[in-house]
C-alpha cells in the first residue's frame, strides 16, 4: 500500500470534494507557510481536512477526521495586502493514518481510500437513475453548462459522477460533508438520487412562484405604462387623469367644508400624502378611504331645534297614546335643556319592558324636535372597538358605530338612540361601558376620539337617548349620569285605548285599508287575552297586522266594508294561543304571588302539598337562594304559630312539605314571596282554599312582620291583567299606590298589611 506524507490544510465549515474547486484567501503566517511547503516541497499537493465540529480555535489532532481529500494547488497569487489567494482542485479521497505536528506545520500520513467491491450491475443501475434524475433537474435549471452535462453523460464511473454532480448542486455544509464522508459510491449515489428529486421539486416550485410573481409584476408594469400613456394622451387632449381629478374634487370639498381646524389640517395633510402614493400601493386605497370617511362626517350640518313646546307636545301626542307623565317629563327635560343650554344635563334613559314604546317614543322626540334620528343597539356588544373603531392599520378598519351612525344621520346634532344599554356585554376586548361613558360624558364627548378617525370629533350637540329593560343591569357609572324615565306595562284598558286611538289607524294606512275596516272593542279585548301575552303592544301590533294582511288579500278584487269582531279574529288567527287566564278555582295549597320580570309583572302561583315523610321541606320551581331562605322563614313562622293557625303539629312531623313555584321555566328570586309562601303552607295544611282572584306580595320575618317590596306597579298591572281583584301589599308600600293607574285602583281592592296576621284574618277567618 502506497503511503505518503502531505501538508494538511484545515477547512472550517467548508468542504472540498474530489473534482471540485476551492478558492481560499490565506492571511495568517502559519497557513501561508503550509501553502509554501505544499507548493515548494510537494509539487502543490496538500491534504484538505474538514472537522465535523469546530469546538475552539486551537484544534487538537484528535479533533481531526481520519479521512480527507488530496488537493492540488493550481494557482497562488500574492495580493497587494500580502494575503495569498490560492485555487485548489480536489483530486481524491484519502485515508489518514497519522497526523504529525512539527512546529507550525501539520502533516498527515495518508493512503488511498478503501472502497468496498461493488458489482458492475449495481454500479450501472445506480448510474442510470442518477443520469435520468439529473436530466430532469437540468430541465428546471437551464443555466448548467453544456460542458458539464456532456461530461456527466460520458462519465461511466459512479464515483466520479456523484462527485461532479454534488459539486454543482447548491448544498448546505452538512450535505456536502455527508457526501465527502460517504465512501461507498452506491450509498452516495442513492443520497444523490434523493437529493436530485428534491432539488428538482424545489426548483420547480420556485419557478412557479417566480412565474406568478412575474405575471403580477408584468400586469402592474403594464398597467403603469398604460396609465402613463393615458396621462400623456389626456394631457395632449387637455384632460386630467382620474387621480388628479379625485384630488381636485377632494380639495374642493375641503375648501367648502365647515369643519374644525384640526380636521381641515388633517385632511390637507392626508391629501398631500395621497398625491405621492402610487396607484399600485395598498396605502392608496387606505388613504383614499380615510379621506372619504372624514369628508362624509356631516361637519357644520345642524338641524334647527323646534322650540315651541306646544308643537312638540302635539307630535308626541300624535304618535303615542297616553303616557302623559312621560311626555310631561320629556317636555320638562327639553325646556330645561333649552333654557340652560347646559352641557351637563343628564341623558334620558327610557326604562321599561319590551313593546311599551321606548324606541318609538325616542323616534317621536326626534320628530318633534326636528332632529334627524339614528339608532344603534349595544345589546351583546363586548368589544370596545365596536364603539370606538379599529385603528387604520387593522385590515378592513372602519370607524366605530358612533361615528358611522353620525355619518348616517347626516347632521352633527341628531337624536341618537342607544338601545339595550343594560345588555351590553362585559368586554373581552376593552370595556364597552367605559367607551360608552366617553361617548355620553359632556366633558369628554366634545372631542370624542374614534380609533380610526384619530381626530377629536365634537358630539356635544348630539342628543343621546338610551333604552333599557332593567335599571339594575345598567353599569353603575353610566346610571349615575342618566335621567331615568320609567315606562311601565300597559293595562288591558290602556292597550285597548292604544289600538283604538293610534295603532289601528296606523295599521289601516299601512295596509291600504283606511275607511274600509273597523274593529270592535270586544275583538281587541279578545285578541289581547287570547293571542298575546306581553307587557307592551308589540305582539298585539303584529297580530293586528296579520289580520289586516289577510283582509287586504281578500279585498284585492272585492272591496267591501268589514267590522272585525271576535268571530273574525278567530277566523283569521285560528286557534286561541293562550287560554283566558286565571279563571279556574284554586285547590287548597295554591296561592297567587306576584313577580316582576323584564317582560313586565306576572302572576306567580305557589303550590304546596304534603305527603308521608319525616318533616323535610322540598323546594322546586327554579328558586334562587333568597327565595329558598324565604321559604324556610315562612315555614319557621308557621311552625311557631301552629296553634293559632289551627295546624296539627303531627302533620308537619310525619309528612314532607313540598313547595313548588309554578311557571318552572321562569327563574324566581327575592324575598317578596314571603307572605305567599306562608299562605300556601297554611292553606295546604289546613285544607282551606284561597281564591284565584286574590294575590299577595311582601317579605315576611320570623315574627310575621310584612316588609316593603320593589316593582309594585308592574306586579299590580300583571295581576290585574290576569283577572286578580284583591291584592295584599305591605303597608310600607302605600306610597307606591299613587303610581297605579286609576282604572286598576277602581277595580282592585288593595289591602295594606303590617303583620301577617292581617292576611290570615282576612283569608282564613272568613273575611274574604
Ligand atoms: P320598545 O322600544 O319599548 O320595545 P317600541 O317603541 O318598539 O317598544 O313599541 C312597539 C310598538 O308599540 C310600536 O309600534 C309603537 O308605536 C307601539 N306603541 C307602544 N306604546 C304605544 C303608545 N303608548 N301609543 C301608541 N303606540 C304605542
What layout of secondary structure does this protein have?
Layout: E1 4-10, E2 21-26, H1 29-41, E3 45-49, E4 67-78, E5 84-102, E6 105-112, H2 120-140, H3 146-154, H4 158-168, H5 173-181, H6 185-237, H7 242-256, H8 261-276, H9 282-296, H10 309-319, H11 324-340, E7 347-351, H12 358-369, E8 373-377, H13 384-388, H14 401-409, E9 415-419, H15 432-440, E10 448-449, E11 456-457, E12 463-468, H16 476-479, E13 482-486, H17 492-510, E14 517-519, H18 521-531, H19 538-555, E15 562-564, H20 566-573, E16 590-597, E17 600-612, E18 617-620, H21 625-639, H22 649-653, E19 655-661, H23 674-686, E20 694-696, E21 699-700, E22 706-707, H24 712-721, E23 726-730, H25 742-747, E24 749-753, H26 756-764
Parallel strand pairs: 1-3, 7-12, 7-13, 8-9, 9-12, 14-15, 16-20, 18-19, 20-23, 23-24
Antiparallel strand pairs: 1-6, 2-5, 3-4, 4-5, 5-6, 10-11, 16-17, 17-19, 21-22
Helix pairs in contact: 2-4, 2-6, 4-6, 7-8, 8-9, 10-12, 17-18, 17-19, 18-20, 21-23
The site of adenosine-5'-diphosphate has 20 residues, from α12, α17 and α19.
Amino acid at each position: 500500500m502506497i503511503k505518503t506524507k502531505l501538508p494538511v490544510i484545515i477547512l472550517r465549515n467548508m468542504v472540498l470534494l474530489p473534482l471540485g474547486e476551492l478558492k481560499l484567501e490565506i492571511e495568517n503566517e502559519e497557513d501561508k507557510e503550509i501553502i509554501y511547503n505544499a507548493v515548494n516541497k510537494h509539487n502543490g499537493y496538500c491534504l484538505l481536512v474538514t472537522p465535523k465540529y469546530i469546538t475552539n480555535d486551537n484544534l487538537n489532532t484528535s479533533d481531526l477526521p481520519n479521512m480527507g481529500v488530496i488537493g492540488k494547488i493550481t494557482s497562488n497569487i500574492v495580493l497587494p495586502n500580502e494575503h495569498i489567494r490560492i485555487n485548489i482542485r480536489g483530486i481524491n479521497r484519502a485515508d489518514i493514518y497519522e497526523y504529525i505536528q512539527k512546529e507550525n506545520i501539520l502533516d498527515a500520513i495518508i493512503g488511498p481510500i478503501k472502497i468496498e467491491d461493488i458489482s458492475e450491475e449495481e454500479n450501472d443501475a445506480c448510474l442510470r437513475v442518477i443520469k435520468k434524475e439529473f436530466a430532469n433537474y437540468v430541465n428546471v435549471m437551464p443555466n448548467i453548462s453544456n460542458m458539464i452535462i456532456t461530461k456527466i453523460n460520458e462519465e461511466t464511473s459512479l464515483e466520479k459522477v456523484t462527485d461532479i454532480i454534488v459539486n454543482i448542486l447548491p448544498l448546505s455544509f452538512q450535505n456536502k460533508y455527508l457526501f465527502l464522508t460517504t465512501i461507498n459510491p452506491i450509498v452516495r449515489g442513492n443520497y444523490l438520487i434523493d437529493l436530485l428529486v428534491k432539488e428538482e421539486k424545489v426548483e420547480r416550485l420556485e419557478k412557479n412562484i417566480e412565474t406568478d410573481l412575474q405575471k403580477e409584476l408584468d400586469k402592474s408594469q403594464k398597467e403603469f405604462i398604460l396609465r402613463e400613456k393615458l396621462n400623456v394622451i389626456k394631457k395632449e387632449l387637455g384632460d386630467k387623469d382620474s387621480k388628479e381629478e379625485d384630488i381636485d374634487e377632494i380639495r374642493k370639498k375641503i375648501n367648502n367644508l365647515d369643519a374644525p381646524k384640526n380636521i381641515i389640517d388633517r385632511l390637507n395633510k392626508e391629501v398631500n400624502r395621497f398625491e405621492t402614493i402610487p396607484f399600485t400601493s395598498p396605502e392608496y386605497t387606505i388613504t383614499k378611504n380615510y379621506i372619504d370617511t372624514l369628508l362624509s362626517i356631516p361637519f357644520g350640518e345642524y338641524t334647527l331645534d323646534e322650540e315651541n313646546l306646544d308643537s312638540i307636545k302635539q307630535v308626541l301626542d300624535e304618535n303615542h297614546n297616553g303616557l302623559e307623565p312621560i311626555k310631561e317629563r320629556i317636555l320638562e327635560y327639553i325646556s330645561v335643556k333649552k333654557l340652560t343650554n347646559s352641557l351637563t344635563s343628564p341623558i334620558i334613559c327610557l326604562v321599561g319592558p319590551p313593546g311599551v314604546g321606548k324606541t318609538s317614543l325616542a323616534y317621536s322626540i326626534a320628530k318633534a324636535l326636528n332632529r334627524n334620528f339614528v339608532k344603534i343597539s349595544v345589546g351583546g356588544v363586548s368589544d370596545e372597538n365596536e364603539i370606538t373603531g379599529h385603528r387604520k392599520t387593522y385590515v378592513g378598519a372602519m370607524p366605530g358605530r358612533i361615528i358611522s351612525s353620525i355619518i348616517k344621520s347626516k347632521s352633527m346634532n341628531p337624536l341618537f338612540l342607544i338601545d339595550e344599554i343594560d345588555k351590553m356585554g362585559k368586554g373581552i376586548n376593552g370595556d364597552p361601558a367605559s367607551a360608552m361613558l366617553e361617548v355620553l360624558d359632556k366633558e369628554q364627548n366634545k372631542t370624542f376620539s374614534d380609533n380610526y378617525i384619530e381626530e377629536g370629533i365634537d358630539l356635544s350637540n348630539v342628543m343621546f337617548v338610551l333604552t333599557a329593560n332593567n335599571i339594575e343591569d345598567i353599569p353603575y357609572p353610566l346610571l349615575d349620569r342618566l335621567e331615568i324615565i320609567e315606562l311601565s306595562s300597559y293595562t288591558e284598558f290602556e292597550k285597548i285605548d292604544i289600538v283604538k286611538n293610534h295603532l289601528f289607524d296606523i295599521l289601516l294606512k299601512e295596509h291600504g285599508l283606511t275607511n274600509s275596516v273597523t274593529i270592535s272593542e270586544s275583538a281587541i279585548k279578545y285578541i289581547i287575552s287570547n293571542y298575546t301575552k306581553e307587557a307592551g303592544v308589540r305582539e298585539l301590533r303584529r297580530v293586528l297586522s296579520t289580520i289586516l294582511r289577510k283582509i287586504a288579500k281578500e279585498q284585492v278584487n272585492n272591496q267591501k266594508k268589514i267590522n272585525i269582531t271576535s268571530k273574525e279574529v278567530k277566523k283569521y288567527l285560528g286557534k286561541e294561543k293562550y287560554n283566558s287566564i286565571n279563571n279556574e278555582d284554586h285547590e287548597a295549597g295554591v296561592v297567587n304571588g306576584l313577580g316582576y320580570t323584564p317582560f313586565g309583572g306576572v302572576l306567580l302561583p305557589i303550590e304546596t302539598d304534603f305527603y308521608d315523610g319525616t318533616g323535610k321541606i322540598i323546594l322546586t320551581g327554579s328558586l334562587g337562594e333568597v327565595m329558598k331562605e324565604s321559604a324556610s322563614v315562612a315555614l319557621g313562622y308557621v311552625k311557631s304559630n301552629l296553634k293559632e293557625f289551627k295546624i296539627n303539629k303531627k302533620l308537619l312531623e310525619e309528612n314532607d312539605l313540598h313547595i313548588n313555584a309554578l311557571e318552572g321555566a321562569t327563574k324566581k328570586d327575592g324575598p317578596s314571596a314571603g307572605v305567599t309562601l306562608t299562605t300556601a303552607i297554611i292553606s295546604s295544611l289546613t285544607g282551606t282554599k284561597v281564591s284565584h282572584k286574590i294575590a299577595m306580595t311582601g317579605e315576611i320575618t320570623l315574627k310575621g312582620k310584612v316588609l316593603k317590596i320593589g316593582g309594585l306597579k308592574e306586579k299590580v298591572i300583571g295581576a290585574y291583567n290576569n283577572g286578580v281583584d284583591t291584592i295584599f301589599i305591605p303597608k310600607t308600600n302605600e306610597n307606591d299606590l299613587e303610581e297605579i293607574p286609576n282604572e286598576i285602583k277602581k277595580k282592585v281592592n288593595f289591602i295594606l298589611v303590617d303583620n301577617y296576621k292581617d292576611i290570615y284574618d282576612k283569608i282564613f277567618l272568613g273575611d274574604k
